[in-house]
Backbone:
């Protein structure tokens, strides 16, 4: 199975800052990569699929890039509602689809 | 507005079977492929399997020997059974909808239900 590794595990950020979360796949994942946001006590929310396509309703400050084995989620200007845990998920090779361990974006 | 709601026991004894259902409201269970996932502090997010009303299904190889999924169209719900549970199966269990055919990503999730395996 493809192992997904996210870095860093925690990011301490101020409002308005640019945030970059990295995700690395242990094997080739093409563009078949999704990003989710999860807030405490809630289910994950799909933000991006196809490595860079935002789901309808997701603010434009969220963007995704990358292909193959290296992927990035960028939040251009962090808002208060963006403090959460972010997960990447590959769906290029399954079963099983696999998730990264998560990156917690917290207030600095 | 489509919503998913998990239901089932919150406590299961070791070696017994975990059974959960997910009710689909606002759409037909026949309309999509449906999945179960779980989340635990130790293993993070883990996909369990998917099911379609026709019976088409696939499972995580790590759980395949213990898992079965089913769909009840009369109740507009789908279900998970996980046999021979241990403490390692303690997790929040989510039901979810597959977003786009051919892409196993999940755009709609239930709120999740905590299942604890303990005697």
Residues:
């Amino acid at each position: 199975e493809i192992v997904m590794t996210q870095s860093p595990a925690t990011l301490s950020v101020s409002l308005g800052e640019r945030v970059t979360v990295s995700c690395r796949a242990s094997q080739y994942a093409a563009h078949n990569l999704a990003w989710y946001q999860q807030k405490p006590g809630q289910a994950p929310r799909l933000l991006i699929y196809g490595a860079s396509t935002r789901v309808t309703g997701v603010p434009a400050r969220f963007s995704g890039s990358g292909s193959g084995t290296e992927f990035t989620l960028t939040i251009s200007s962090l808002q208060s509602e963006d403090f959460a845990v972010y997960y990447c998920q590959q769906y290029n090779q399954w079963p099983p689809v696999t998730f990264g361990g998560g990156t917690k974006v917290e207030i600095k | 507005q489509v919503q998913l709601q998990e239901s089932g026991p919150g406590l299961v004894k070791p070696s017994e079977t975990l059974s959960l259902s997910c009710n689909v409201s606002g759409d037909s269970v026949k309309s999509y492929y449906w999945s179960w996932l779980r989340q635990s502090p130790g293993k993070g997010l883990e996909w369990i399997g998917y099911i379609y009303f026709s019976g088409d299904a696939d499972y995580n190889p790590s759980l395949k020997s213990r898992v079965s999924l089913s769909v009840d169209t009369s109740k507009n719900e789908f279900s998970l059974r996980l046999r021979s549970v241990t403490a390692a199966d303690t997790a929040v269990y989510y039901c979810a909808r597959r977003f786009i055919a051919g892409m196993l990503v999940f755009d709609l999730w239930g709120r999740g239900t905590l299942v604890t395996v303990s005697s």
About this structure: The mean pLDDT of chain A is 97.
